[in-house]
């Protein structure tokens, strides 16, 4: 009897609720914190408390927080464990319980609540944090060979240059214990990090000195999709019940059977499914496609979905059909998805059809460019041409490359980069852009329809966002 994603979420929250934690519903993907574009972790909601700017209403909390990490976009579909959109389960202590309690509950959740075999768990600790090492070894009884010391880059958390900080300790699952005691946690074909415990115990001052915090905090994060992968015994996060139904739906539309597909098709199916989850949740949280900030992240995700759809042979509009699947899968945990159904579908329809027109126009222009080159017996599409297609017509460079390859041509990527850099310089000197299209969740819902649909080019934004 394998646990579903919904059951894992429910059991985790129930465990901590019974231990005095206030259950806090997921915050919006639009963070209150102005220093980040999107909600990237469960702790963000509580950051003002950790920074001492807000007094907590309760000493302990637990949540299942929807997150988006664009820094993982290149990993999507390629690693077994990374998404742009995922849910982070977390338990938090605000000056209340600390290390020993957090570790013993983390262990109990892993080994008893979710029943993971103890001998399959590996622990990482910060190498100077002897206290944590000793708790794992002496109180929990983890053998030394399965406690790994890691450096400051991996296992020390900072909120900024100054402020609260502290070591962390992670729990990894071993898929192949038969491979023995030679443990390299970087080997992701064997190990997966699923639970991170942060011990916020120091304050760093402007001179870099650490002093103990009067009020020590706990911040943790467990990837729901990762725990589902482990418990459902599937080869990657994508094949869990949280995502596989979307993959199947995409497969139906593309007439491709996921399990029988080649690696490239599988990657496209995974990317489309991952991005659709992100897209639907973003629009549900009142983010609309635009050329800056969050809106630009959304636009790029939608365009990647359409592009990968074409790569696997989908030439019709399909994103609203997938949105329906995402809503069905998510609505029991996130009822507002259904309330936002029409806004989600309208936005998708507009963006998709607009981008399809862009693509059709770009393909026509590119065909002309290729024809001319062939007549001149040339084989390289210049950086200038690629840039013009990209900048003026919104036609992605990768697509130019792909079509060029089909025609037996190559593209001048370096030339394109040079043109891009010139453009960035021009944009920096002449623009200051403000995102007016991204609305706050508190905004009046009746104004949902007002948003930019006009394509203005990518240019102003490449400097400010990386997706
Ligand atoms: P990794 O090293 O695997 O990239 P991380 O150390 O960046 O993970 P944390 O910042 O510690 O992750 O986040 C806490 C937990 O959230 C992780 O232990 C993992 O379970 C989950 N998580 C982090 N990033 C992702 C992602 N891109 N997709 C799915 N789950 C994630
Ligand atoms: Mg990471
Ligand atoms: Mg990590
Ligand atoms: Mg981590």
TrEMBL record:
The answer to keyword Plastid applying to this record is no
GO BP annotations listed: alanyl-tRNA aminoacylation
Q: Which domain of life is it from?
A: Bacteria
Q: What does this protein do?
A: Catalyzes the attachment of alanine to tRNA(Ala) in a two-step reaction: alanine is first activated by ATP to form Ala-AMP and then transferred to the acceptor end of tRNA(Ala). Also edits incorrectly charged Ser-tRNA(Ala) and Gly-tRNA(Ala) via its editing domain.
One Gene Ontology term of the molecular function aspect: alanine-tRNA ligase activity
Cellular component, GO, one term: cytosol
Q: What does the entry comment about cofactor binding?
A: Binds 1 zinc ion per subunit.
EC number in record: 6.1.1.7
Intracellular or extracellular location(s): Cytoplasm
Q: Which family does it belong to?
A: Belongs to the class-II aminoacyl-tRNA synthetase family.
Entry cofactors:
Zn(2+)
Q: Which reaction equations make up its catalytic activity? A: tRNA(Ala) + L-alanine + ATP = L-alanyl-tRNA(Ala) + AMP + diphosphate
Q: What is this protein called?
A: Alanine--tRNA ligase
**Alphabetized UniProt keyword annotations:** Aminoacyl-tRNA synthetase, ATP-binding, Coiled coil, Cytoplasm, Ligase, Metal-binding, Nucleotide-binding, Protein biosynthesis, RNA-binding, tRNA-binding, Zinc
Q: Which organism is it from?
A: Richelia intracellularis HH01
Establish whether keyword Transcription is in the entry: no
Domain (Alanyl-transfer RNA synthetases family profile) spans 3-467
Its domain comment says: Consists of three domains; the N-terminal catalytic domain, the editing domain and the C-terminal C-Ala domain. The editing domain removes incorrectly charged amino acids, while the C-Ala domain, along with tRNA(Ala), serves as a bridge to cooperatively bring together the editing and aminoacylation centers thus stimulating deacylation of misacylated tRNAs.
Major enzyme class: ligase
Q: Where does it mainly reside?
A: cytoplasm
């Amino acid at each position: 009897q394998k646990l579903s994603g919904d059951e894992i979420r429910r059991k985790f929250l129930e465990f901590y609720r019974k231990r005095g934690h206030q259950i806090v519903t997921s915050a919006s993907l639009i963070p209150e914190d102005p220093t980040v574009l999107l909600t990237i972790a469960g702790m963000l909601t509580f950051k003002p408390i950790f920074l001492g700017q807000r007094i907590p209403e309760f000493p302990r909390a637990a949540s299942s927080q929807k997150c988006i990490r664009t820094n993982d976009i290149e990993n999507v579909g390629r690693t077994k464990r990374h998404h742009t959109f995922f849910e982070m389960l977390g338990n938090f202590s605000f000056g209340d319980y600390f290390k020993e309690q957090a570790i013993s509950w983390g262990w109990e959740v892993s080994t008893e609540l979710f029943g993971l075999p103890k001998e399959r768990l590996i622990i990482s600790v910060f190498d100077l944090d002897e206290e944590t090492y000793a708790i794992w070894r002496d109180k929990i009884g983890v053998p030394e060979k399965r406690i790994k010391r890691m450096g400051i880059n991996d296992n020390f958390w900072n909120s900024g240059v100054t402020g609260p900080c502290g070591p962390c300790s992670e729990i990894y699952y071993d898929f192949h214990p038969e491979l023995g005691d030679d443990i390299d946690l970087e080997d992701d074909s064997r190990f997966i990090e699923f639970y991170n415990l942060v011990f916020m115990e120091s304050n760093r001052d402007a001179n870099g000195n650490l002093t103990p915090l009067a009020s020590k905090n706990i911040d943790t994060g467990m990837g729901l999709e990762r725990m589902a992968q482990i418990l459902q015994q599937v080869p990657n996060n994508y094949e869990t019940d949280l995502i596989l139904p979307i993959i199947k739906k995409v497969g139906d539309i593309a007439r491709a059977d996921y399990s029988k597909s080649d690696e490239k098709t599988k990657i496209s199916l995974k990317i489309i499914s991952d991005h659709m989850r992100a897209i639907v949740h973003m629009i549900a949280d009142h983010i609309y496609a635009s050329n800056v900030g969050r809106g630009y992240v959304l636009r790029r995700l939608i365009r990647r979905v359409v592009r990968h759809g074409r790569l696997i042979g989908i030439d019709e509009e399909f994103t609203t059909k997938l949105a329906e699947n995402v809503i069905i899968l998510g609505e029991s945990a996130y009822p507002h998805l259904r309330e936002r159904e029409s806004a989600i579908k309208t936005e998708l329809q507009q963006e998709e059809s607009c981008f399809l027109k862009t693509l059709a126009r770009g393909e026509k222009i590119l065909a002309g460019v290729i024809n001319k080159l062939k007549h001149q017996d040339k084989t390289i599409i210049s950086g200038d041409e690629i840039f013009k297609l990209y900048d003026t017509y919104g036609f992605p460079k990768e697509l130019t490359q792909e079509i060029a390859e089909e025609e037996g041509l190559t593209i001048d990527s370096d030339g394109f980069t040079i043109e891009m850099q010139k453009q960035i310089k021009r944009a920096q000197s002449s623009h200051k852009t403000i995102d007016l299209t991204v609305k706050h969740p508190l905004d009046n819902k009746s104004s949902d329809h007002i948003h930019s649909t006009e394509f203005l080019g990518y240019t102003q934004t490449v400097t400010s966002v990386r997706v």
